[in-house]
Structure formats: C-alpha cells, structure tokens
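Reposting from the mailing list since nobody answered there.

I have sequence plus structure tokens for a pair of proteins and want to know whether others read the tokens the same way I do. The first protein:
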Amino acid sequence: MNGSEILLECLRREGAGIMFGIPGGVVIPFYDKLVDHPEVRHILVRHEENACFAADGFARASGRVGVCMATSGPGATNLVTGLTNAMMDSIPVVALTGQVSTNLIGNDAFQEADTVGITRSCTKHNYLVKDLKELPQVIREAFYIARTGRPGPVLVDLPKNILTGEAEFEYPETVSLPGYRPTTEGHDGQIKKAVQTIWESCRPVIYAGGGVISANAAPLLRQLAELLDVPVGLTLMGLGALPADHPLFNGMLGMHGAYSANRAMVETDLMIAVGVRFDDRVTGKLEAFARHARIIHIDSAPAEIGKNVRADVPIVGDVGRVLEKLNRRIAETREAPAGGLKNAASRRAWLETVRGWQREHPFAYEDRNDRIMPQRLFQEISRAIDGEAIVTTDVGQHQMWSAQWIKRRHPRTWLTSGGLGSMGYGVPAAIGAQFACPDQRVVAVVGDGGFQMSLPELATIVAYGLPIKIFISNNGFLGMVRQWQDLFCHGRYSAVEFPIFPDARKLGEAFGLRGQVVSDPAELREAVESALNDPGPVLTDVRVSREENVFPMVPAGGALQDIFLDEQAARASLAAPAPVAVGDSGAGEMS
C-alpha cells in the first residue's frame, strides 16, 4: 500500500469512521485515496480550528477518539487553539497534519511550519513520521495514548513523501510503551484508608469533575453519593455526572457556582475529590481553600495529585475502577459501629444544613416584562428540552447562565470549553456532537461574540443537513469582559461593544436555514419551542437585557467565602476601602 492507503486502513481499524478537516497541498494524496474509502467519512468544515473543536465535540458526546486533519503550515497552526482546548479539558483527539517532504524540512519550503515544535506543549504527545514503515505503529500508539490514562490530544505530522511512498502493511495488535504505563488500579491500602477517613468525618462533601465523565463513571459516582448520603458539588466540566434533580445534587461549584455548593466547600471537614484538578475557578484563593478539611483525591493523572492542593489520601487510578473498589468497601463497612454508624447523626444533620442553604439561596433573578432577561432564556430552553438534549456553549456570561439554569440528567450532554475558555467553541462542537449522536437533539447556546467567530460553520450545518438548534444570547457586548469592566474598572467600558450584528433572518436565508429574531418576552417561549420542534437547523437570535451581570460571583483572587450573591452585595463590597472576608469554617455568613 502507499502511505495514504495505510493511514486510511489504520483509521478504519481504530474505529475512526468520521473525521473533520480541510484539505491542502501536501495532503492531497490522502484526500485522493479517501474517495475510494467510504468507510471513513470526511466532514469538510470551514476553518481548521473548527475541525479540532468538532473532533473535540464528537469525542465528548460519544466517548470515542475524535479525529481531525489539516494541511501543512497555516492548516496545522490553525489547530493550536483546538488542541490546547482538548489538552486542558482532557479530551481524546488525534490530529493529523500534512508536512513538506522530509528532504525539504528545515529549508523554509512553501507552507512549512515546525508543527511538532509548535504543538509540543499543547498535546499529550506528538510525532513526526520520517519512515513509512513506522506509520501503522505511530497511528496505533496515537489512539492508545489519546484515550488512556488522563485522555488528551495527540498529533501526527505526516510529510508528503510518507503519504505517497509504498510499503508492506502490517498493523500492530499491541502497544508497548515502556515510558508510558498509566496506573489503572487504585492502591488497596489507600482505598481502605479513604473509607476509614470517610467514616471519621462529620461534614463530608463530594467534589466531582470531568474526570468522572471521561471515565464513564457517572453511575458509580451516584452510587457513592447514595451509599454515603452526602451532598455532591460538580465542577463546570462535571455537570451531568449526577442528575440535576437528584436529591443529593448540591449545584455547580466555583466562581459562578451555587451558594450552597461553595458554602459546603468552606464548612466541610472532608472533601472527596473525584476526577478533578482543583482549578482556580473552583478553589478561589488557595491559601483560604478548605482550611479545615481533610482531602481524598482520586484521579488518573499522578501529576494532578498535590499540584494545587495537598491531598491527605491520594489515590491514583482509573476513576471508575477506583470508585468500584471504594463503593464495595463502603458497602461492607456501612453498618459497622466503627464504620458507617460512627458519626451518622452528625452527617445527617450536615445534609439538612446544606439543604437549608439550598432553600435560602437558590439561583435567582428579577424577571421583566419590558425586556428578555438572559436567565429566562436559559430557563425556557431547559424547560423545553427537559434534560434530553446535548447542549454546547461558547464562553462568557451565557456559558455561566447555561450552567446555572439548564438542567442536565445525563453525562456527555454538556459540552463546553472549560479550562481554556475558548470563544467560538459552541457551534463546531455541536457539529461534532450531532455526527456522534445523530438521533439526539443538539442545541448550541452561544453569545453574539463567540458566534461571530464560528459563523461560517452555518454552511457546514446546512451542507450536511444537521438539525442543530442555535440560540444566540445577544446583548451586544463581550458580556463577561463588560461585567468585569463594570465591577472592577468603575464601568469604564473599553473595546467590548458590538454595535452591529447581522439580521438572523437574512443570515439564515443566505445560508439556507431558518432564522428568527426575538426581543419581546411574551414571544420567547413560542420562539424556543418553534425552533426546537423544527425538523431542520434553526438560528434564533434572542435580544436579551444588555447589562445584566452573572451572580453569584466569587471575585478573582478571592476565597469561596467572599462570594457576592447579587449586584447589591458586589457593589457594596467593591466600594469598601478594603476587602472584608466574611464567613469562615464554622463561623459567620458568606456575603
């Protein structure tokens, strides 16, 4: 076979039936052979960054490795944002890039770039293939590395002569990487210690994140919560790991998280951290984080243990396998006097205390008749989909409102750029998700800023007949930047306003899909239902209240106990001559 045929056969054997990309000069030999291999379907997007975002969305929705391809030079460099996004959120993606022929590398040939050097820091691993005989082994390893341990993106750089050369094809059935041996089984002694630590606690919480979803361990997390009967706070990346209507769900954690979730993190004496990396958007000020709590940290990546926060009981291993062992041990000791019966009354009282915080401080806003409040938009979407849709978002205020107000019942139905916070993610991620799950409803909720970064992908949606519903929360601003300028720069707005936005009806007509504009609160529900019930793609531009801010909010650099519950509390605190920390473990109220 020639190199292009070998690559296609490798993709087929890895189950990569869908790939996203844009062709270019040095990868033409691959695209020529693609015509003869219908079992590998190529989706032509309109920008390479969006090819990587789409592969990312495909991976998140399906649990399989997403694949994207770009040509050399600008094609490859356009993947960098998508690769960094996948790296920070631990998403398995294999990116294939063209490269100039090996004899031209280093000569500044046309469309040459040092792709391996450029992407070294934003991939889990990368390869430059110099010998065609090594190509099957490289592709096998790339998929293996991408999906094992802590998942992540792997890039394979393919010189043109590798794609055109010929070699005998032999696919390796096994992978042996002496320097890469992910730990899958948690240490039994540490698991036993964790259970003992749990039973000694009086105010335990579970803090769970995207690692639970990556490991397909949501049922085991639910079992853990129900065995212990303790509140569960989820990170932005972990939403969906426990149904939003579950009685033990305590809301989203972090900067714009629920009061009850953050308060529980302040007051707890034991934090069971599962599949999380203690991100700064969750911990806030590290010196003030969980001062009085012991911490059990379960994660597949040894490098995450102790990186930001000290762990009293570290457990490295596949999150699902560790939870299975942990749950079994908990079930065996739950009725023992020195086990689950110890401190049982205190734990019951703690759960009631947390539920009291939930009742006292739910997410809230003041609805209006003269304008559409953004929170109302997300409530209407949530009511209409009833937890049975894949929702993707861009980044900014709408992302936080979506996280707060759209209720999720299942894992892999919430796709958002968490660690990198990349605008323009929502629409291409929805494309990837729709290809991954063709029978599921896919809804992209985006801001007017992020939407304009991925607007050309409307053509992709129409070209492939994807019934994606796009809702634009349109406030005419880069909303989150405006909010920070409002609160922390004395309202001195700078380069954040969009005075011009295309008419969604005309834009839809130009691309060949239905577009609608909604500005009257009385028409919002009907517009949402109309879009969702349409069999084809729909673009809905919702003109929301322009200067609404997202609350609750923990100010950047502040501790979780410094949370602002509303606009009034925020402005009063920020106007004070010096910051005043209120509330601490066991004392006082949060702002």
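The second protein, same order (residues first, tokens after):
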Amino acid sequence: MSEQEIKVPDLGGADEVEVIEIIVSAGDSVEEEDPILTVESDKASVELPAPAAGKITKITVKVGDKVKEGDVIGMMEGGAGGSDDDGSDKSDEPDPKAESKTEAKSEDSKPAPKKKSGGSRTEVVKVPSLDGFDDVPVIEINVAEGDTVGEDDPLVTVESDKATMEIPSPYAGKIGKILVKEGDKLSEGVDLLEMTIEEDGGDEEETSDSGESAKADSQGSKPEAKADKQEAAPQPQGSTYEPPAPGTKVHAGPAVRKLARELGADLTRVKGSGPKSRILKDDVHAYVKSQLQQAQQGTGVATGSGIPGVKLPDFSQFGEVEREGMSRMMAATATNMQRSWLNVPHVTQFDDADITEMEDFRKAQKVAGEKRGVKMTPLPFLLKACAAALAELPQFNVSLDMERKEVVRKKYIHIGIAVDTPHGLMVPVIRNVDQKGLWELAAESAELAQKARDKQLKPAEMQGACFTITSLGGIGGTAFTPIVNTPEVAILGVSKASMKPVWDGKAFQPRLMLPLSLSYDHRAVNGADAARFTNLLAQLLGDIRTLLL
C-alpha cells in the first residue's frame, strides 16, 4: 500500500490562504474529492479535496497556518488500487491518466471566479421596505419598458392609508419587463420589474456557497453526493435562532462574515442552510429580520423593550363585542408613539402666553387675506415664534445619536405641524421657517394641511422636522402632555385660548391667554432651558413686533 503526499491544488490565482478548519484527522478513511480542510482567502472560503480514496496517515498543517499552491498539507495511503494483488506492481507507478484526472478534478473543485458576460447583468428589482405597510396599491407606473433611468429615479407610485409614495430605482440602467400594473397591491419583497445594468468586466465577488456549487458540479459520477447538495440548497429560515453549543464553529465565508458585522448579527445564533450547515447571506438576512420583528411586535408576554405585556381577558364574557383590524395609519402611529415613549425621558413645561394684541392684529388682516386668497390663522405666528426660539436656544434644535454618543446639531429650521384628519394624525413639515414671512407661512401651512386631509402628502413632505407644533385650540382643553416626535427633542402643544383676569399691578384686566405645553427629551434639554424657551415664546407672542428685531 503506497503512501502519497496531499498537496494544495491551484487556488485560482490566490497566493497564500489561511487554514480555518481541519476536517479530517490521522486514521480517517476518505473518498476521492472528500474535503480534507477548509482555507479562506480574501474572496471566499474553499474546501481542499482528497486527491484519491484512501486513509489519512498524517496532517502536517494546523488551523491558522498559511499555505499556497503545491504545499504539502498531509500524507495518505492509497485505497482500493493499492490492495489489488494482480496490480500491485502498477500501484507504485504513477499513472499519467490518473494524475491527469486528479488534476482535472482539482481544477474543477476550485471556486473559479465568475465572469460577467457581455458587460451587463439583469436584476429583478423588488419592492423595498414600505415602513410596515402591506398590500399597498399601485396608482401610477412612472416608467416604460426600454426606458433608461438613473439611481433613485421613481419607478412606480403607490398609495397607503397615510400618503402616496414613489418607489425609487436602486440602480442606474435600462428598464426591461415590468412585472406589475396599476391596481396591483404590493408588499415588501414583491418583484417589481426587470432591469439591465451595464457594468465593467471583471470577477464577481464570490460567497462561500460558490465553492460548494463548483464542487457539486465536479461530482457528476457521484449522484448521492449531488443529491445531498441539492437537498441542502439554501432555504431561508423562518426561525433562525440556534442556541450556540460550547465550542461551536461558525461555517461562513468572508462575504457572509462581513455582512454579519455590518448588521450586528451574531453568527453563532444563525442557523445555516447551505451545504454542511454553512451560513449564507439569506440566513443572516432572515435572522436579522426575525429579530427586528420580535423587537417591534414582542413575543409571548413581553414586548421588544422587555416591558411586560398586557394579557387581555375574554371581553365577550362581559357582553357583546366586535373586533376590527387597525388601519395602517393607526398601527404606524401606535408603534411610533410607543417607541418614543419607551425611549425618551419625557418632561413637560407649562406656561401661558398673552396673545391679546396678536389676535387684534391677526383679525385686522382679514381684508388683506381675502385679497390674497389666504386666511391668516394663529399658526403662522406660532411658527415664527418657535423658529426664533430655536435660533436663540439651539439646544432644542438637535438630535441625539446614543449609539455613537454624539449630538447632531442642525443648521436649518424645519417645523412639523400636526394635522387632524379623518384618517388620523399626520405631520407635514414646513421647511426654512425662519426665512419665510407670515403670509407665506399661512399659505404653505394651509396647502399642506389640505394635502394631509386628502392623503396627497408625499413621504418627503413629512420628513426632516427639527421641532413639532400640535394644536388642540380648535377643540378645547386647558393643557396636555404631547409625546416628543423622536428623533426630535421637543414638541409644543397649544390648547384653547381663553379670557382670564390678569393683574397689571393696579387692577385685574381681561386678557386672552394661550396655554402652552412644551414636552422635551430630558437627555438633551434641562428644565431651566425649557422654562427659558416657553418664557421666550410668551414674550414673542405677547408683542409680535419683537419678531422683527
């Protein structure tokens, strides 16, 4: 029985690669093409195969060693060919055909870089995240087959219960087949259209499963092995959490490990669906998605933040009940409010502003407003006063990045205005409030409020606010505690103005007083600053001439 060296085959152009796993040990019997050890390059992890059937007598490398083509990694004794009595003399002689065959198999087993054909590729564009919405109808197709589009150009327009939104192109390229039509209902992950993307030539990045598939293709004479690999084809896992056993090794390629690092996924908790339980990119994505769903929706009796959930009784035992599903907008609002309340330490500062003179001035503008076609409401005055206060007290115009322990200071003043609509609360954003006059603010706020009631707001018109104003003045109440619209750090609540007796030093005078409720994030704003903010608002609203200073 002859003993032969096990050498590293051609590594597809790689110089030195690192041994990351020893799959066999001395004394093990292997078949031709069975994996001996796994190496990892900058591009992929590859299993080096046995050059023939036989018994492993020695492994001369260890995990962490660097090897290159031609290096000896172990020794093995020949199998069936060496024990044949009739051909014992031949077993010691090299067979050119056998060597040729072995080299061919080694060449086949290596993960050859995939070339991009024709300088282009076809991608199926899928529907991205729709902020938790499902079954959103298509109301407009913005492109046609054969059109050339740039990255982020709108492809289709959809309408949710909250607003209309455009789905942007993730690539620059040429539109192929459009897979949806107007009226279709879309959810995240649905195929939208095909697109041809022009590329420079070169090798595509390989993931760990490319080496496995190349190896499977080279084993045409072994139907059992091929069938096993087909059964082990990637299947995204519904439940991807696997409690890690002590000493568990992670089988994943460099691209998968990089993805896991970017997403913050612990690979020891991900169940692999590739060959030999190797972890693929789909497994990482499925794991992260399942963890997010558990965090947002809660599982069992606890919610995502570890807060005990409320177990509901059977209400039907007390009387007749009826159940109906939440609207998309109600569900989104509930989720956002809970997230903000659980993450932001809220404090509310109360104050009153004397708006007697401001109201006299506002009412005097009725004729001018009719000529302009614009109604002057108290809101433009509130917007200007808040913009001035944000400029003077910039600690209110920030957001907190707790992960990086940084304060994001904004050099612009965009203010959101909460609008009560038949479909729920919506918050369009007025940009650069500090740079606009009262009439311009009156016209823009009225236009955005109408678009909100008609569900015509675009996503961009509800983003970017530094601060929010919410008013219940048209309904009633004396005060309330609004919830901060995180990542903003403050929100102003305005209640119904009423006439109150105010002491002027000599007598009580009837004054129109506007209740202000300022809720703020106590991590970013302290109580003294909150009191300064409401005092400043009261001064600005009490004498609107100060807005000109």
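Reply #1 (J.P.):
I read it the same way you do. The chain is about 25% helix and 25% strand.
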